[in-house]
Amino acid sequence: MRYVGLYTQQRRNNSKSLLLLLAFPAIILLLVFAFFALIGGESGGGEYYYDAYYDRYIQTSSGSSGLEWALSQTLTVMPWVVLIIGIWFLIAYKFNTSMIRHATGAHEVTRMENPRVYNIVENLCIAGGMNMPKINVIDTPELNAFASGIDEKSYTVTVTTGICERLTDEELEGVIGHELTHIRNKDTRLLIISIIFVGIMATIMNLAFRFLWNTILWGGNSSRRNKKEGAGGAILALLMVAILAALGYFFTLLTRFAISRKREYMADAGGAELCGKPLALASALRKISDMPAAAPDGREDIAQLFIIHPQSLTGGISEWFSSMFSTHPSTESRIHYLEQF
Q1: Which helix (H) or strand (E) holds 239?
Q2: CA of 274: how far to CAs of 88, 134, 167, in Å?
Q3: By C-alpha distance, which of 243, 193, 188, 187 is closest to 85?
């Protein structure tokens, strides 16, 4: 795979970031419309409201078609959907760096505290014409590294103490060059946006299934016929929400996977080019794959940042399945590519 130039890669990733920003709210609104369309199709376009006196859901009559009613309802809730998603996104986008640092237990180091790593980062930044990012270290014997941040103030390269102890200077240069390429190509910003969007969709899906399960339990304990009918309507509505949310989550994941796998190949090529030693990076990947750091509390959003995803190292059927739904290409394919560089 030929390495794409810096400015070309940045422009492509900026375009992808914009598309994600526009596409995700569109997917949410499409799911909202699909939900109302299903409800409208069942009810002939009529609305449901809860009648406290009869303790059940009552359907009103409507002269409009189901699709017209669904469009009307979608337009009504659209401002609230966009507002909630926007606030959620801005909070996560603003504080993602501090959340990652807190979740991993990383701490920032200076030249005095870790001159070896600091000098490697500084020399590579000078060679690549980059500004110096922050340097964080995680105190763990496991091996891994990642880059994070959304702008010059928050760009960070994080390494474990294990990777510093077990890799040679040339191998560590290759790993840090890989992470600096993520920053230089603005991959970290694209990654954060996609992680936030997938996380929002996953939360919606989990809440829908949780409410569905609780409604089934509560509805099953009711002995009154009208309560059962009301619970049945609620279960049907929640089931539709859960199915639609699962579909939305699936499609956002596919987008995330496609972007991420290519991003890793590009970072390998850029890191090899930056340090000038592709075989050193290949050797580092072999060592890291022997004992990669696992994400704290099994958090997938953190694991996706690592230079090697721990779950990509499983074998058999799990390896085949993970290759289809993985944020990273296989380590073997990355090493083979670097050896041909």
Answers
A1: helix 225-275
A2: 37, 18, 18
A3: 193
What tokens does 278 get?
A: 């592709």
Rounded Cα–Cα distance for residues 323 and 139 (Å)? 30
142 a catalytic residue: no
Q: Which residues contact 176 (CB under 8 A, 6 or more apart)?
A: 117, 120, 121, 124, 145, 157, 159, 271, 275
| pTM for the predicted model, two decimal places | 0.72
Structure tokens at 334: 């990355």
CA atoms 20, 242, 78, 89: torsion sign: negative
Q: What are phi and psi of 59, to 5 degrees?
A: -100, 135
CB 274 within 8 A of CB 177: yes
Query: What is the tens place of the pLDDT at every residue in 290-341?
Result: 887 766 766 777 777 888 877 654 444 344 444 555 667 788 888 888 888 6
Contacts of 131 (CB under 8 A, 6+ apart): 125, 152, 155
State both tokens at 246. Answer: 């699962």
Residue from 108, 179, 229, 339 carrying the catalytic annotation: 179
How many Cβ atoms are within 10 Å of 280's Cβ, its own excluded? 23
DSSP 278: H
